[in-house]
Here is the input.
Amino acid sequence: MEFGFSEELLEIKRIIRDFAENEIRPHVMEWDEKQIFPLDTLKRLGQLGFLGVLIPTEFGGAGLGYAEYVTIVEELSRIDGSVGISVAAHNSLCTGHIYNFGTDDQRRRFVVPLAKGEKLGAWSLTEPEAGSDAGGTQTIARLDGNHWVLNGQKTFTTHGTYGDVCVAMAVTDKSAGHHGISAFILEKGTPGFSSGKKENKLGLRASDTSTMIFEECRLPKENLLGELGHGFIDALKVLDGGRISIAALGVGMAQGAYEAALNYAKQWKQFGKPIADFQAIQFKLADMATEIDAARLLMHRAAWMKDQGMLTTAQSSMAKLYAGEVAVRVANECVQVHGGYGFIKDYPAEKFYRDVKLCTIGEGTSEIQRLVIAREILRM
Ligand SMILES: Cc1cc2nc3c(=O)[nH]c(=O)nc-3n(C[C@H](O)[C@H](O)[C@H](O)COP(=O)(O)OP(=O)(O)OC[C@H]3O[C@@H](n4cnc5c(N)ncnc54)[C@H](O)[C@@H]3O)c2cc1C
Here is the structure.
């Protein structure tokens, strides 16, 4: 068992950290307050290969593994979770779904421009009445000659407004339950396919979270992704990978909040000395550092297993559950360490406090992760 990182991984970490410090940090609060989606920054990340991290070079990607991928998401999220969630949704959800379950033709048409960062990807599973119970999808796809015709609505889609390519799940056989849901690839501009409300959110406000609407949306038959009736089953496999990147989002934001608390505690004085001299503050910092380390280890264990081609359903959920809850605890203590200034927008604490909450909700709530973990434990 090795706990060190390869030189290559450390180099990637240095590059992405420099990028985040120089090209993201100066804009974080403006993007957050004005809800500006940083499209140009994502394009730059694409040029650097960070929008096709897991895709082989022959399909326009960087040809890296999950160890590198989670490091990239962690480093971006350390500065801004909004950029972290964008990169995660683009890479492991949309691009990953098409690469892993698409035909060679679909890989050439869609994965190549997505992996090169020329196009931005979205992935639509959640519906207004089918979130945790995603198998209760109501969007319908009916076959009409050589076309699929989609009708329905999706909610909370990351890149629902800015995405160029969207993978969406729809019911193709109502009587077949989970085996009657299929996946489809949609392109921006397809008649009958539009984005609706862009959500005004508690946190991750620079990320784009929008409704997607399908009204008699006609898709060529070849836009079916994966086998007919396998869309939901494939989506669960996609989420096994996606949840590791939400763990990385949590670890990154927790790390950012911890560093903010540590710096503040060393500089801010009360009773004539830095508050870091008080044991109550030291214990907070010790707990934060320990929990973040534990979350990072769970994240890297799941990433390592994924890179070995192993099934990671339980390990992905454990990493996502723990990292998400640690991020919430750490951000809470970060505000506490800052005292009144933790409540004020001049300091980074309040933004971390708002942003981290997504980690216990997105790609399956903490309750759903516990259900998944329990099901896997009992099955073994
Ligand atoms: C910022 C953001 C980005 C998102 N991006 C995407 C995206 O790109 N694509 C996408 O498809 N979705 C996306 N989502 C949706 C997200 O995955 C869902 O919000 C999440 O799965 C929860 O579904 P829900 O909101 O419908 O909550 P609900 O399912 O209605 O849950 C409400 C509450 O009930 C609990 N609950 C539900 N069922 C059970 C149960 N069986 N046992 C115990 N408790 C239960 C939940 O844990 C929760 O506490 C995003 C959401 C947000 C907020």
